[in-house]
Write a structure and sequence with these properties.
Elements (H helix, E strand, L loop, with lengths): L3 H8 L10 H56 L8 H20 L3 H27 L4 H89 L3 E5 L7 E4 L2 H6 L3 H5 L16 H12 L3 E8 L5 E13 L2 E11 L1 H23 L3 E6 L4 E4 L1 H6 L4 H4 L11 H17 L3 E9 L5 E12 L5 E10 L1 H21 L4 H15 L3 E8 L6 E7 L3 H14 L2 H9 L3 E3 L10 H8 L4 E8 L5 E9 L7 H70 L4 H27 L3 H5 L7 H14 L7 E4 L11 H17 L7 E8 L4 E8 L6 H6 L17 H12 L2 E6 L5 E8 L12 E5 L4 H13 L2 E5 L10 E4 L3 H13 L5 E4 L4 H4 L4 E3 L5 H14 L8
Parallel strand pairs: 16-17, 21-22, 21-23, 23-24, 24-25
Antiparallel strand pairs: 1-2, 1-5, 3-4, 4-5, 6-7, 6-10, 8-9, 9-10, 11-12, 11-15, 13-14, 14-15, 17-18, 18-20, 19-20
Helix pairs in contact: 2-3, 2-4, 2-5, 3-4, 4-5, 13-14, 13-18, 14-18, 15-17, 18-19, 22-24
Length: about 1000
């Protein structure tokens, strides 16, 4: 079958030629050499001829110069003496110039030297003649001498030039003969080469005739085949209209236009292109032609009847060297297949949209575990695209090997048994480290060969439900421990474990702040290995975990997504990174009253932010931890308060007993002392007097014991409102000598009493007795000569005064410390101590509203601190005392609050079920009846302070009340009272 290149040769037969033989190549080479030789001979002949002509010019110029000199001589030295020398002089100058030009143009060195000498001589003759003419003088001798020399020089030049002329003539003759021979040889060679070319051309014509016949037959077969091919075959130019040169009849079936219309360029395929495809077609063709590769096109054309048809075109460019001659190719109607492909693409697109819109994981895998189908949800969970996921396995994206092995086992089980498998619950870890739960159904795909080589799976996300179950289960376990009275440590450990139940990839630590020192300590932890636990303890020991402190101070969650990007990194962050952690989330633990108690810290080995379930778990755990911690601390405080109350009750009972005992003893001692006085007035013997002294000593000891017993019976409630007070600045100088005198000589008394200490609420003699007892006890506990130290300092902003008595003696054990304040308790022999010393000190502190603290350890000495409240002037406002109403059913609490408010400058009235006066401070209980009264009181007095004893509901808190949940929390009660004073414009006084 003929191709487009064959057709091109057919149209240009003159371009066909046979191969070039070596004979022709040799002939061409010889011809070129002869031509070059002839050109060289011609150039040499021309150069020689020029030199001959130049020598002739010199000869003529020399003869002319001699003639000019002769004429000039005749004119200057003529017999008549009347000739004019000017013309000959001018002629001589002209010939001199001619010789100068000839010298320059000559190529013969000998001629140039001779002419140069002649030129100099002519210059001398010319100058001599010119001087004679200018002076009008005729010096025949000088001029004749110059002329003679000129004649000699001219003869010399003529001889040199004539000799050179003869040589040139000989060379010219030889050159001409060589050129003649070269021309004859070239002619003969050209005739021989022409004969060879004629023979070659006749042979090429015969071969061309055979090729033409062959091409005609090929074209006939080509056209016959083209007319029977189901498609358009074309040959066209690469112009703007793609002008057709060859077309088969199928173009009429495809377009509806006659074939001749395309061949005669009455219509072009370009006019049939769809507007959306018209710009892309030439770009694609040009790009393929620039790389000399075939091009493939798919586009729409408009038939003559207006119908749009899809066609597919394949073609290539026909090149002659670097020149593009034609485009050839074929066009096939693919409308039906295109519509089918379009419908198939739409169906695939619909299927892909259905798969990608489904939040569940939909996938298919082959026996090797590679994905053959996946939707967008699965790809997003693995942090990739659907395209990248196809052909890969779970192991390429999931670092949890146990999960991947579990998936693989289930897939092979389904493929091998061909039975569907439903997995109620399985875990998948995404690329962000989040654990997600799925309910998965897997089924084998049976192909046309009845082979099960692929498994189809659908995994429904049940993460939210599962996480809610885990959070609920963890919360229930924690609440169960709280309800059953488990220890705080056990409750916090369950909270930490609950976080681990939700996400085992995290480590959890519950960190609490010590209420006394404020330092942070790890109360519970879960998920840490031994090395991580040790590293965490080191971080807290050194840095106190700055992030936890920051979360507690701000009250907001702190999240560090990637610890490696924290810049600058605190010491705690560097320590966490060294322990292998990459992220850290810290949630503050807050009590119901708004107090920040600590934090819950979560640590992970993957950089990420907490998700919604993590946030919910942290908030829930922090809330429960706050409740549990506050409750545990409240219970601890309650136990301490109950212990103090039991001790106080025990002391009160003993006080009541001792008061009666002291009263009875005093009744017995009084008449005895009277009789002793009477006996003392009478005259007695010496023996009787000594016996009387002994009896008197015994009576005095019993009297002291009776006075001490009566002091223990003092009622603190009666003393709370006492006006007794002691100015420390005045008191200590008065009693220092007395106290110093009570010490043994070996003991030195050291003291530190700064000026300006507040006045304390205690009787001077009671304070003296208390300090004296403490100093004496300290001296008795000291065996060596170490000093006893008495110091005083203000505390709580001047609201308390602390008197401390310290020694370096033997100290006390914990058992002794727990009983030392009890009456009659003593470690000494009965004859040496009554056991009432520290009990009296405790009674003095209680009567003043203070307390006694003891710090002691065996071998480390003892420090007894006597804390007494400061006594200040009651706060006044515009010269009047403020009003307060106390409405509490508990008489003990009501009386204690009444005394507290009166000492703070209030006029207090105790009443139940009545509305307080406008602007009055109201202390009440949170019941429904009082709630209605509180609302009326708030309307009448928006700025009035309302203090509620008990757990206040949200309705009470909406009224802006101050809530006191435990009446044993002395510091909280004092704080609320101070705040109420500040709100009503009074001065703040520590109670």
């Amino acid at each position: 079958m003929a191709t487009a290149s064959d057709i091109a040769v057919l149209k240009q037969p003159d371009q066909q030629a046979g191969p070039v033989t070596p004979v022709v190549m040799v002939g061409l080479l010889l011809s070129i050499m002869l031509v070059v030789w002839c050109i060289h001979l011609a150039v040499s002949y021309n150069d020689l001829r020029g030199q001959v002509i130049q020598n002739v010019t010199i000869l003529v110029a020399v003869d002319s110069a001699r003639s000019a000199v002769s004429g000039l001589t005749a004119e200057i030295l003529g017999a008549d003496g009347g000739a004019e020398p000017g013309q000959e002089l001018q002629r001589l100058g002209d010939e001199r110039e001619v010789l100068g030009r000839a010298k320059v143009e000559s190529a013969d060195a000998a001629v140039i030297d001779a002419v140069s000498d002649l030129e100099m001589q002519l210059q001398e003759v010319y100058e001599a003649a010119h001087m004679l003419v200018a002076r009008d003088e005729r010096d025949a001798e000088a001029f004749s001498l110059a002329a003679s020399q000129l004649e000699l020089q001219a003869d010399q030049v003529l001889s040199v030039v004539r000799a050179r002329q003869a040589e040139l003539s000989e060379q010219l003759s030889q050159n001409w003969e060589s050129l003649y021979v070269a021309l004859i040889v070239s002619g003969l060679l050209a005739m021989a080469f022409a004969a060879v070319l004629v023979v070659r051309m006749r042979t090429a014509e015969r071969r061309h005739s055979r090729d033409v016949a062959h091409l005609v037959e090929s074209e006939r077969r080509f056209r016959l085949l083209a007319e029977n091919v189901p498609g358009v075959i074309y040959l066209c130019r690469n112009d703007e209209r793609y002008t057709m040169l060859v077309l088969n009849d199928e173009v009429e079936t495809l377009t509806g236009y006659p074939r001749q219309d395309f061949l005669e360029d009455r219509i072009s395929f370009v006019e049939l292109f769809h507007p959306d495809d018209a710009a892309e077609i030439p770009r694609t063709v040009d790009a393929a032609l620039s790389q000399r590769i075939p091009f493939e096109l798919k586009y729409r054309i408009k038939r003559r009847d207006g119908e749009w048809r899809w066609v597919e075109e394949r073609g290539l460019g026909v090149f002659d060297g670097d020149h593009l001659e034609y485009l050839e190719g074929f066009i096939n109607d693919v409308t039906e297949s295109s519509l089918a492909e379009q419908e198939l693409r739409q169906q695939r697109s619909y299927l892909r949209q259905v798969l990608d819109l489904n939040p569940s994981f939909i996938f298919a895998k082959d026996r090797s575990g590679r994905f053959t189908l996946a939707n967008l949800a699965l790809a997003a969970a693995y942090g990739t695209t659907v395209k990248e996921l196809i052909g890969k396995t779970d192991a390429d994206f999931n670092e949890q090997t146990d999960e991947v092995e579990h998936f693989r086992e289930d897939d092979l089980r389904v493929l091998n048994t061909r039975e569907p498998l439903t997995i109620p619950e399985e875990v998948v870890t995404d690329t962000e480290g989040n654990r997600r739960w799925f309910k998965t159904h897997k089924q084998a795909i049976i192909d046309e060969h009845n082979q099960a080589n692929e498994v189809l799976g659908v995994a429904i996300d049940i993460t939210d439900m599962k996480q809610a179950e885990i959070i609920k289960a963890g919360r229930n376990k924690v609440l169960e421990r709280i309800a059953t009275g488990k220890s705080l440590e056990s409750i916090l450990e369950m909270i930490a474990a609950s976080v681990r139940f939700l996400d085992p990839t995290l480590c959890c630590a519950v960190i609490l702040s010590d209420p006394a020192s404020g330092e942070l300590e790890i109360a519970a932890s879960a998920g840490f290995d031994i090395q991580q636990q040790r590293r965490l303890q080191e971080i807290f020991a050194v840095t106190q975990m700055q992030g936890c402190r920051e979360a507690m101070e701000s009250g907001h969650r702190i999240t560090m997504e990637d610890l490696t990007e924290v810049d600058p990194a605190p010491d705690c962050v560097a320590g966490l990174r060294a322990a292998g952690f990459r992220c850290c989330w810290i949630e503050p633990i807050e009590s119901e009253a708004g107090e920040i108690l600590g934090t819950i810290a979560l640590f992970g080995t993957i950089p990420r932010l907490p998700g919604p379930p993590h946030v919910e778990m942290m908030e829930s755990s922090a809330k429960i931890a706050g409740i549990a911690t506050r409750r545990a601390r409240a219970e601890a405080e309650l136990r301490k308060s109950q212990e103090r109350l039991r001790a106080a009750d025990r002391l009160a009972s003993i006080g009541t007993l001792t008061a009666g005992l002291g009263h009875d003893m005093n009744n017995v001692l009084f008449p005895l002392r009277c009789r002793l006085e009477a006996v003392d007035w009478s005259t007695q013997s010496a023996d009787d007097n000594s016996l009387l002294v002994s009896v008197r000593d015994t009576v005095n000891y019993l009297q002291q014991l009776s006075d001490g017993l009566r002091l223990l019976a003092t009622d603190p409630a009666q003393q709370a409102s006492s006006t007794a007070a002691t100015n420390i600045d005045e008191w200590w100088p008065q009693v220092r000598t007395l106290i110093q005198g009570a010490l043994p000589e070996r003991i030195r008394l050291e003291h530190n009493f700064p000026r300006g200490l507040p006045t304390v609420r205690a009787q001077p003699h009671q304070l003296t007795q208390a300090v004296l007892n403490l100093v004496v006890n300290a001296a008795e506990a000291t065996d060596d000569a170490s000093p006893v130290t008495v110091t005083a300092r203000a505390a709580d902003g001047g609201q308390m005064v602390i008197l401390e008595v310290s020694d370096r003696g033997c100290g006390m054990t914990e058992d002794v410390k727990s009983h030392v304040l009890e009456p009659f308790f003593t470690t000494k022999k009965r004859g040496l101590s009554t056991g009432l010393g520290l009990s009296l000190v405790h009674g003095v502190a209680q009567s003043a509203g203070g307390h006694v603290d003891i710090e002691s350890a065996p071998g480390r000495g003892t420090t007894v601190s006597l804390a007494l409240p400061a006594r200040q002037q009651a706060a006044q406002r515009d010269g009047t005392r403020r009003e307060a109403v106390v409405s509490l059913h508990d008489a003990r609490t009501s009386g204690w609050i009444k005394s507290l408010l009166e000492s703070s400058g209030y006029n207090v009235r105790q009443a139940l079920g009545v509305q307080p006066p406008a602007g009055a401070l109201w202390v009440t209980e949170p019941n429904d009846e009082n709630l209605a009264l509180a609302r009326l009181h708030r309307v009448r007095s928006p700025d009035a302070t309302i203090i509620v004893f008990g757990d206040a509901s949200a309705e009470w808190m909406e009224l802006g009340v101050s809530s006191i949940s435990a009446d044993s929390d002395l510091s909280h009660i004092q704080q609320v009272v101070r705040q109420s004073q500040a709100c009503t414009g009074g001065q703040n006084h520590e109670i």
